[in-house]
Amino acid sequence: KKIIVIGSGILGASTAYHLSKSDAEVLLIDRKDRGQATDAAAGIVCPWLSQRRNKAWYQLAKGGARYYPELIKMLEEDGETDTGYKRVGTLSLHADSEKLEKMAERALKRREEAPEIGEITILSPEETKKRFPPLSDEFGSVFVSGGARVNGRAMRDALLKGAKKSGVKILCGNADLLLEGSKVSGVSVSGQTILADQIIITAGAWSNEILKPLGINFKVTPQKAQIIHLELPKMDTADWPVVMPPTNQYILTFDDRVVVGATHEDEAGFDNRVTAGGIHDILTKALAVAPGLSEGSILETRVGFRPFTPGFLPVIGPLPNFPNILIANGLGASGLTSGPYLGAELAKLALGKSTELDISHYDVSGAIE
Ligand code: FAD
């Protein structure tokens, strides 16, 4: 069976990696758009404290966080150890101690079905600052030991290298679907025709464009995000926990950098510029929470487009009227968490195996017109 995967962000890379463990012949095509969400992503894996009530979303994000250690082990067995994944824990901040107690209660309740949350501890402002020195003095926190960070770029590349080792072919270029009668028979890449039995579309925020020739209006919208990378002189940031302030911003660290962000720009389309307003917004919020970051030097600002489908709910499954096309999309702001897991599920669908998720909750027809 020949399978083509279009798009190699975290979702397509994971799909190809999991397919590489089967006997299918797999070709992965990516055109390296500027603003690939995976390439810009922050890297927080901690879905359990979210106040979002949508059960299908939570099921997916929770499954994603739980799947990471298993996948990291698989990659290690393939010799891929550079993923930037580490369970450093998460500090969820609040200045109000009652709010912290409520947060801890919610986490404890969620732990009944998600033991991977780990320890849940309420920390005083002093204890909180000890774990993340740049913070201001006013915030206590709930520390969740199972929270993790991952380097999206490194994780994607580890999956791609692992897939390649098991025979997946990778092609750089723009893929257009080849329509023969009412069936898609393959793709065309730079004038070259490539036929396949099955096509999997994991093209993120750009997926509407690729489906247009089929007469389908795929309702994915790009949400622009700018995110800043800082270097803190003389600080060993390798093991600091992820910080989730009471705003919609976050701060996390890697061995050599601190990442702060991000903006949520719904009206910017595919404008991939770094803007004065974007930087102002991020730094104003970040420095209010962590004044100690003001000494950091700016390494770079990345821009990415979060793919959102209607209701902010991801979709996965066959494309209506085109049974040999599978699609997954809409990973939004939590795709580094859910992407590797959803890619594994997508590979199962392609191979005719049963999935862990009930995919009827993520019906693709909800995203098309
Ligand atoms: P993408 O990564 O965008 O990949 C799509 C790929 O398809 C692109 O490479 C594109 O070039 C390619 N493509 C499109 N059309 C074609 C075509 N016709 N032919 C060939 N190739 C094509 N999630 C978390 O869980 N935690 C976080 O902390 C987090 N932080 C984030 C911070 C930022 C700033 C951003 C932008 C996102 C963040 N996310 C986070 C969300 C996460 O990054 C995304 O949900 C996820 O990366 C989406 O992955 P994807 O594979 O669907 O799409």
Key attributes of the depicted protein:
369 residues; alpha/beta; FAD/NAD(P)-binding domain; D-Amino Acid Oxidase, Chain A, domain 2; 2 domains; 6-stranded mixed sheet; 4-stranded mixed sheet; 19 strands; 27% strand; globular; binds flavin-adenine dinucleotide
Short recap of the structure:
By secondary structure, this protein is an alpha/beta fold. The chain has helices at residues 10-19, 37-40, 55-77, 97-111, 125-131, 152-165, 207-211, 276-289, 335-350, and strands at residues 2-6, 25-30, 44-45, 90-94, 120-123, 140-144, 148-149, 169-172, 175-180, 183-189, 192-195, 198-201, 221-231, 242-244, 250-253, 258-261, 297-308, 315-319, 322-329.
If you had to describe this structure to a student in words, what would you say it looks like?
This protein has 369 residues and is of the alpha/beta class. It folds into 2 domains: 166 residues, 3-Layer(bba) Sandwich (FAD/NAD(P)-binding domain); 168 residues, 2-Layer Sandwich (D-Amino Acid Oxidase, Chain A, domain 2), CATH 3.30.9. Helices cover 29% and strands 27% of the residues. The protein contains 9 helices and 19 strands. It has a 6-stranded mixed β-sheet with strand order 8-2-1-12-19-18, with helices on one face. A hairpin with a 2-residue loop joins strand 9 and strand 10. Helix 1 runs parallel beside helix 9 and helix 3 packs across helix 9. The protein is globular, with a radius of gyration of 21 Å. Flavin-adenine dinucleotide binds next to helix 1, strand 2, helix 2, strand 13 and strand 17. The site of flavin-adenine dinucleotide has 44 residues, from helix 1, strand 2, helix 2, strand 13 and strand 17.
